[in-house]
Amino acid sequence: DRIPWLCALHDILRREDSSRQNAILACSALKKMYRRILVSGTSAIESNQPEQPGENAALKILFVHLDGPIDIIAGRLEERRGHFMPPELLKSQFDTLEPPSAPENCITVSLEKSLPEIVLEIERAIFQG
Q: TM spans, by residue (predicted)?
């Protein structure tokens, strides 16, 4: 059920890229395959591989993995009001998570840092490349 949604997100990112616009997308792409779809669209599903250079080249996406202990994240979820994600689903999210790693274009940022430190670390990664 996530595949059409991820493909639609890829299409939005592709459109922004074609318009030479930068975009920030926040979503929980917990599995490596989900991130492949965001980068390569339907070709990631068909071949289980990123697109090859020259054939509708894959998007350049920096994945930011916000990492932290389950108790910190649970505490933040408890403080949210009107959010669709119930705290009871957090453990299943941790169980599903396949943390990004090389060769994915990713950084891991600790949620134990302050919000200004988190933003600064992400900005540095974006501007460096």
A: none
Q: Is residue 67 within 8 Å of 110, Cβ to Cβ?
A: yes
The band of 77, judged by pLDDT with boundaries at 50, 70 and 90, is confident
**Residue 94, C-beta contacts closer than 8 angstroms, at least 6 positions apart:** 70
Q: Which helix (H) or strand (E) is 44 found in, with range? A: helix 42-47
Q: What's the rounded mean pLDDT across residues 12-21?
A: 94
Domains of the chain, residue spans:
1-61, 64-128
pTM to 2 decimals? Answer: 0.84
37 has a pLDDT exceeding 50? yes
Tokens 């929980």 correspond to: 28
Burial of 86 by CB count in 10 Å (0-12 exposed, 13-18 middle, 19+ buried)?
Answer: exposed
DSSP letter assigned to residue 51: P
CATH number for region 64-128:
3.40.50.300
What does the alpha-carbon distance between residue 26 and residue 125 come to, in Å, rounded to a whole number? 16
